[in-house]
């Protein structure tokens, strides 16, 4: 398709989670509460890690980046949905839709990469504890995080530029609460073969690298844990990665349901429900999972709250 045939539409309409007027106030209150809890929880995790010198280790450096990705991730989609409900206007500009798509894909893939890096970190800590400090040096940790940001920024830009080359039909209604790639492709009047090819090759390759890193790391971790003679030693070793496993299962399970399910079984309603799970629920639960199951984070958060109480009392 030539450049002269690019779409000239000015806006899309996000249909949201429900078109029933009586449900809008409930949805607004529910998602506003979830959004505030998510942002506050993840920022508290970051603040606890930054202010506590005992948490200045590779594992918590990656956790801080995961919390930052979660806070940005949920801020890409939920505020626009809340604004649309509040002003009772479902419109989103064409440029705004592509911008939302870019940042959404950036942060969703960044989260996948950070989770994979955290699995490698746990592998080194459990399987090679004597070499942990030498292997997970500050330089390597910074390189892994910087590479994750750079690769995913370019990956998201590729998908956004490919979306921009498509033309769209008269129906500009997106059966979703944000501009996701699959609903947008379904509205295209031009053949989205290249877009779909890139999704299942480059996007699939990126996802496969993350999944393989997770599987291989945990295969070695479980193998090492099973060799520990005492039951207490096994529980202690497993406790260091149980929170990470919970987050990985929730995030990858729901995201694969959305992007890698067969077209014959895919529906707008199922896709929207699964999207809510990994775009809103997962980022909200991550701080609770790590704070409730991690003694260091719980201790740091208690000290942080205690210091704030002392300062307010003075």
From TrEMBL:
Ranges that cross the membrane: 26-50, 62-82, 102-120, 132-151, 197-221, 242-261, 273-292
Pfam families reported in the protein's UniProt record: 7tm_4
Subcellular localization: Cell membrane; Membrane
Keyword Transmembrane appears in the UniProt entry: yes
SUPFAM superfamilies found in the cross-reference section: Family A G protein-coupled receptor-like
Domain of life: Eukaryota
Gene Ontology CC entries for this record: plasma membrane
Keywords: Cell membrane, G-protein coupled receptor, Membrane, Olfaction, Receptor, Sensory transduction, Transducer, Transmembrane, Transmembrane helix
The keyword Disulfide bond is assigned to this record: no
Recorded GO MF terms: G protein-coupled olfactory receptor activity
GO BP of this protein: adenylate cyclase-activating G protein-coupled receptor signaling pathway
Domain G-protein coupled receptors family 1 profile: 41-290
Predominant subcellular localization, coarse grouping: membrane
Signal peptide: none
Membrane topology: Multi-pass membrane protein
Described purpose of this protein according to its UniProt entry: Putative odorant or sperm cell receptor.
Protein family membership: Belongs to the G-protein coupled receptor 1 family.
Full protein name: Olfactory receptor
């Amino acid at each position: 398709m030539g450049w002269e045939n690019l779409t000239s539409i000015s806006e899309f309409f996000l249909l949201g989670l429900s078109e029933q007027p009586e449900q809008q106030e409930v949805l607004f209150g529910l998602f506003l509460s979830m959004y505030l809890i998510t942002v506050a929880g993840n920022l508290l995790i970051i603040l606890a890690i930054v202010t506590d010198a005992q948490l200045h280790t590779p594992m918590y450096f990656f956790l801080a980046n995961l919390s930052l990705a979660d806070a940005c991730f949920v801020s890409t989609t939920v505020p626009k949905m809340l604004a649309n409900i509040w002003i009772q206007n479902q419109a989103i500009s064409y440029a705004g839709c592509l911008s939302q798509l870019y940042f959404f894909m950036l942060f969703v893939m960044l989260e996948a990469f950070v989770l994979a890096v955290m699995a490698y970190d746990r592998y080194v800590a459990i399987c090679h504890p004597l070499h942990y400090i030498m292997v997970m040096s500050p330089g390597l940790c910074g390189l892994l995080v910087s590479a994750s940001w750079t690769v995913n920024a370019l990956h998201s830009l590729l998908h956004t530029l490919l979306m921009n080359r498509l033309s769209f039909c008269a129906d500009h209604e997106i059966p979703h609460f944000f501009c996701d790639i699959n609903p947008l492709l379904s509205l295209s009047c031009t053949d989205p073969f290249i877009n779909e090819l890139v999704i299942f090759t480059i996007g699939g390759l990126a996802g496969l690298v993350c999944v393989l890193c997770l599987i291989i790391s945990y295969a070695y971790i479980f193998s090492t844990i099973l060799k520990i003679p005492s039951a207490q030693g096994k529980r202690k070793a497993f406790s260091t990665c149980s929170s990470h496993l919970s987050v990985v299962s929730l995030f990858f399970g729901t995201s694969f349901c959305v992007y890698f399910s067969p077209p014959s079984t895919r529906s707008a309603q199922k896709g929207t429900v699964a999207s809510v799970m990994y775009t809103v629920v997962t980022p909200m639960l991550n701080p609770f999972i790590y704070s409730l199951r991690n003694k260091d984070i719980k201790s740091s958060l208690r000290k942080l709250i205690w210091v704030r109480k002392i300062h307010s009392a003075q």
